[in-house]
C-alpha cells in the first residue's frame, strides 16, 4: 500500500518527536484510522464518528467509540480532516484530554488541513516540532498549563442544530430542498430517511405529510444523527435514529416510503456506486407497492439501477442541476 500520513505519523515517533506509548499508558486517538502494523493498538482509545470507519477499527481489534468522554490520557493523536473548524475543535479537545507534559501529535496529508494548523498553533504561542514526508506532515507539541477554550467557530449556530463537518453545514441543501417540494400527498405510513444527515428531509416530511405514522432515520455520521435528534425533538409521531452503514448493516424493516438524497462521495472521490447501494438497500426494505423518492445530480446514472429493481420509475421534476425520481416497488 502507498505510504501516507499514517506512515509519517509513525516516523515522527521513530524519530523521537514524541515518545511511543509505553505499556499501561492510554492515548486518545481522534478521527482515528487503523495504523500500519496496528502500531500502539493496545494503548489507543479511538474516536471515530463515521460508521464505516468505526466498523473497520472495531473489526481490526481497536477500542473505539463514536465520541470519547473527556478524561486524562498520557498522550493524544489527531488525524486532520478537510474541515478547519473540526480540526481546531479536535486539537483543543486532544490538548485538554492530555496530562501536563504529555504529547499531542497531529498528522495529515498536505491536501487536508494540516498546513494551516501550524500557523494557527503559533498564533496561540504554541511551537510545534514538524516532520514532513510522504506528502504529509506531523506536528508535535506538549501540553503545558490549563485547558484551552473551544473556539467559537466550532459551536452550532442558526435555526437548526448543525455543526461544522456535517453534510450541508451551512443550512438546507439545494437538492434536498428540491426533493421536499415533492413530499406533499406522497408520504404516509412507515417512512425511512436513508443518509438522514442532521434531519432536514425528515423534518420537512413530518411538517408536510400528516399521514406519516412513524419515521426512521439512518445515518453513518454519529454527530449528524445526534443533531437530527435535536432537530426532530417534539415530533408528533414515533421517531427512531439508527447509527449505521446503510449499505451493509441495515436492520431490515418493511417501510411504506423511503426518502433520500444519497451520498455519492467517499472523501473527495465521486463514487456513484455508493448511491446505487443505497437504492438497492431501499428496494430490499420497501413493501410491495412501496415508494422511493430520491434526488440526485442530473448526470448521475441511477435510472438503470432503479429500473432493474422497481416496477415503475418516474421523473417527477428537475431544477438547479438535480433531478427528483419516484420509484414504485413491484409485488
Ligand atoms: C447527500 S447527504 C444528505 C443528508 C440529508 N439527508 C440532507 O438532505 O441534508 C448524504 C448523507 O449520507 C450519509 N452517509 C454517507 N455514507 C453513508 C452510509 N454508508 N450509511 C449511512 N449514511 C451514509 C452522509 O453522512 C450524509 O449525511
Topology:
Blueprint: H1 5-14, E1 27-30, E2 44-47, H2 51-59, E3 63-65, E4 73-79, H3 84-97, E5 98-109, H4 114-123, E6 129-133, E7 136-142, H5 174-180, E8 189-194, H6 200-208, E9 212-219, H7 222-231, E10 239-243, E11 255-260, E12 265-266, E13 269-270, H8 272-285, E14 286-297, H9 303-309, E15 312-319, E16 322-328
Parallel strand pairs: 1-2, 1-4, 2-3, 4-5, 8-9, 8-11, 9-10, 11-14
Antiparallel strand pairs: 5-7, 6-7, 12-13, 14-16, 15-16
Helix pairs in contact: 5-6
Bound molecules: S-adenosylmethionine.
S-adenosylmethionine is lined by residues 52, 167-168, 173, 176, 195-197, 200-201, 218-221, 224, 245-247, 261, 263.
Which keywords apply here?
331 residues; alpha/beta; Rossmann fold; 2 domains; seven-stranded mixed sheet; 27% helix; 30% strand; binds S-adenosylmethionine
Structural summary, described in words:
The protein has 2 domains: about 5-155, Rossmann fold; about 175-330, Rossmann fold, CATH 3.40.50.150. The chain is an alpha/beta fold and about 325 residues long. The strands form 3 sheets. Strands 3-2-1-4-5-7-6 form a 7-stranded mixed sheet, sandwiched between helices. The chain has a 7-stranded mixed sheet with strand order 10-9-8-11-14-16-15, sandwiched between helices. About 25% of the residues lie in helices and about 30% in strands. Strand 15 and strand 16 (about 320-330) form a beta hairpin. It has helices at about 5-15, 50-60, 85-95, 115-125, 175-180, 200-210, 220-230, 270-285, 305-310; strands spanning about 25-30, 45, 65, 75-80, 100-110, 130-135, 135-140, 190-195, 210-220, 240-245, 255-260, 265, 270, 285-295, 310-320, 320-330. Bound molecules: S-adenosylmethionine. S-adenosylmethionine binds near residues 167, 176, 220 and 246.
Amino acid at each position: 500500500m502507498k505510504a501516507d500520513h499514517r506512515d509519517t505519523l509513525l516516523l515522527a515517533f521513530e524519530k523521537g518527536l514524541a515518545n511511543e506509548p509505553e505499556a499501561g499508558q492510554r492515548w486518545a486517538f481522534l478521527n482515528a484510522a487503523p495504523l500500519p502494523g496496528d502500531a500502539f493498538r493496545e494503548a489507543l482509545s479511538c474516536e471515530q464518528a463515521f460508521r464505516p470507519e468505526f466498523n473497520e477499527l472495531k473489526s481490526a481489534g481497536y477500542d473505539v467509540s463514536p465520541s470519547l468522554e473527556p478524561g486524562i490520557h498520557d498522550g493524544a493523536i489527531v488525524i486532520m480532516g478537510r474541515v478547519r473548524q473540526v480540526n481546531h475543535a479536535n486539537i483543543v479537545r486532544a490538548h485538554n484530554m492530555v496530562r501536563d507534559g504529555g504529547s499531542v501529535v497531529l498528522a495529515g496529508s498536505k491536501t487536508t488541513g494540516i498546513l494551516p494548523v501550524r500557523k494557527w498553533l503559533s498564533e496561540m504561542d504554541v511551537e510545534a516540532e514538524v516532520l514532513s514526508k510522504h506528502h504529509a506532515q506531523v506536528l508535535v507539541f506538549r501540553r503545558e498549563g490549563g485547558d484551552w477554550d473551544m473556539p467559537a467557530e466550532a459551536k452550532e449556530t442558526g435555526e437548526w442544530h448543525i455543526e461544522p463537518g456535517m453534510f450541508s453545514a451551512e443550512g438546507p441543501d439545494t437538492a434536498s430542498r428540491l426533493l421536499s417540494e415533492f413530499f406533499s400527498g406522497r408520504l404516509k405510513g412507515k417512512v425511512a430517511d436513508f443518509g438522514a444527515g442532521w434531519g432536514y428531509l425528515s423534518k420537512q416530511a413530518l411538517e408536510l405529510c400528516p399521514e406519516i405514522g412513524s419515521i426512521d432515520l439512518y445515518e453513518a455520521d454519529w454527530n449528524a444523527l445526534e443533531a437530527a435528534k435535536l432537530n426532530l425533538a417534539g415530533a408528533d409521531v414515533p421517531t427512531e435514529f439508527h447509527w449505521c452503514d446503510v449499505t451493509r448493516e441495515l436492520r431490515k424493516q418493511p417501510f411504506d416510503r423511503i426518502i433520500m438524497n444519497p451520498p455519492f462521495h467517499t472523501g473527495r472521490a465521486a463514487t456513484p456506486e455508493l448511491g446505487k447501494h443505497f437504492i438497492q438497500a431501499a428496494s430490499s426494505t420497501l413493501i410491495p407497492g412501496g415508494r422511493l423518492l430520491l434526488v440526485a445530480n442530473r448526470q448521475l446514472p441511477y435510472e438503470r439501477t432503479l429500473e432493474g429493481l422497481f416496477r415503475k420509475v418516474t421523473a417527477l421534476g428537475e431544477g438547479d442541476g438535480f433531478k427528483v425520481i419516484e420509484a414504485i416497488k413491484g409485488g
